[in-house]
Amino acid sequence: MNNFIYENKTKVYFGRGCVKEFLTCLVRDYDTVMMAYGQGSVKRNGIYDEVLNILMREGKKVVEFSGIMPNPTYQKVLEGAGLVKEHQVQMILGIGGGSVMDCAKAVSLASGFEGDAWENFWERKGIIDFDLIPVGVIPTNAGTGSECNGAAVITNEERKVKTGYDYPACNPKFALMDPAYTFSVPKEQMAAGAFDSLSHMMETYFSEPDERNVSDEISEALMRSVIRDLRQALKDPEDYMARSNLFWDSTLSENRLIKMGKKCDFTSHLMEHQIGAYTDCDHGRGMAVLHPVYYRHIFRDGLGKFARFARNVWEITPEGKSGEELAAAGIDALAAFIREIGLPTTLRELGVEDRKQLREIAASCHYSPGGYRRLDAAEVLEIFEECF
Ligand code: NZQ
Ligand code: ZN
Fold first, then answer.
1. Measured from the CB, is residue 283 less than 6 Å from ligand 1?
2. Which atom of ligand 1 lies at the shortest distance from residue 41's CA?
3. How many folded domains does the chain comprise?
4. Which pLDDT value is given to residue 367?
5. From CA 160, how far away is CA 364, in angstroms rounded?
6. Per residue in 281-330, pLDDT tens?
7. Residue 38 Cβ < 6 Å to ligand 1
8. Nearest alpha carbon, ligand 1 atom 13
9. pLDDT digit string (tens) for 98-148?
């Protein structure tokens, strides 16, 4: 394996009832707590009341930061940072999906920095040499793995850029993960979140080194779990076992564990983020559109690994197939799975209205050096055209 340093400072409390059991002691040291949440799901499913009651019972001063949108904007981050300063918030509690958790981390970063946070931490990778207000998270959607990493993916609407770096200093202090909190996620959102996890696994798996390594073996197990448990959770959204597995799969796919010793690709993510910057589409749905098309472009550059993916993840028998046929069959299985779980297959379904827009989006993409082959702008445009 390649050399690596592994660090993850988020403490996870996982399981039914964990908020009731542990939140009190986790906020003990803070008098003023910001409740950061999205556009209303936590009020409809009762999670907001459950958390607020605990904070009130403990005598906390609660500062509300609501209305965090999917694909949180830098403007929203600045609004939150203003509230933190105005009320001298001591802890930020992000309650929601990846968008809320990312925004909570971004608010902590932006409120602790005197200069232009966008330029220093999103436009380029910066150095965090100042204290951050601690963030705790209560995820309500499985998918991004934001609960256990330091990334805050933020959209700068003015500049039409969606981006984020993983800063270990921004890892949440704790994550309270109750799988039952994800029961109310609508089915398509559930599928999109699970596909995002699968995408994180694939983006890591399809990169060097391909020699025997435990990171790839963990990824294969996680990918099989997402496929199996998503199918089950779509049948029965309140299947606790399936929702627990999906929840933990998503954490393990983005808590850096499976990335150890791997180059990591993330080309599809970089492309999707720019599609999101232009269309505000849901991230997991965007990943579903891009993956099969991208992989049909590059699979010959990583043929052995794509064949292994077909065998070990999709259980396709190699008999009677050439390496290329086997690898292609794995990508076909992935595409069929995307259709089966009801995710989109074209950019038009994501809100790209005009073919002409593709050129501008392609020109705004960054390219990852970690994949089997580095794409150039012309090939990104070709992929977008095929996805349109
Ligand atoms: O806004 P609310 O009302 O909370 O509703 C949300 C939103 O409409 C809803 N939802 C969440 N939990 C629910 C629920 N509805 C009913 N019941 C629940 N329990 O779901 C909708 C989507 O939420 P969102 O947070 O946007 O989705 P997701 O968790 O997929 O997060 C996506 C964001 O995370 C970023 C994406 O780019 C996107 O901005 N990512 C973050 C990463 C990270 N930090 O490591 C990595 C990812 O690759 C990704 O880029
Ligand atoms: Zn993702």
1. yes
2. 3
3. 2
4. 84
5. 9
6. 999 999 999 999 999 999 999 999 999 999 999 999 999 999 999 999 99
7. yes
8. 185
9. 999 999 999 999 999 999 999 999 999 999 999 999 999 999 999 999 999
Distance CA 78, CA 342 (A): 36
Q: Between β-strands 161-163 and 154-156, what pairing exists: parallel, antiparallel or unpaired?
A: antiparallel
Q: Are 39 and 154 found together in one domain?
A: yes
Q: How far apart are CA 45 and CA 225, in angstroms?
A: 27
Distances (CA, A) of 354 to 90, 136, 287, 357: 46, 41, 19, 6
Residue-number span of the structural domain to which 117 is assigned: 11-182
Residue 247 per-residue DSSP state: H
Place of tokens 């991230």: 283
Residue 195, sorted as left (phi over 0), alpha (psi -120 to 50) or beta, turns out to be alpha
Domain contains 208: yes
Q: Ligand 1: which residue has its CA nearest to atom 11?
A: 97
Write the DSSP symbol of residue 138: E
Query: Do 149 and 213 lie in a common domain?
Result: no
290 and 198 within one domain: yes
In-domain check, residue 140: yes
Same domain? 251 vs 318: yes
| CATH number of the domain where residue 339 is located | 1.20.1090.10
Q: Confidence class of residue 366 from pLDDT cuts 50, 70 and 90?
A: confident
- CA 287 vs. chain centroid, Å, equals 11
Please give the distance, rounded to the nearest whole angstrom, from the Cα atom of residue 143 to the centre of ligand 2: 7
Where among 182, 217, 240 does a domain terminate?
Answer: 182
Neighbours of ion ligand 2 (CB under 5 A): 196
Q: How far are the Cα atoms of 78, 81, 295, 335 from residue 93, in angstroms, in the given order? A: 17, 13, 38, 37
- What does pTM read for this prediction? 0.98
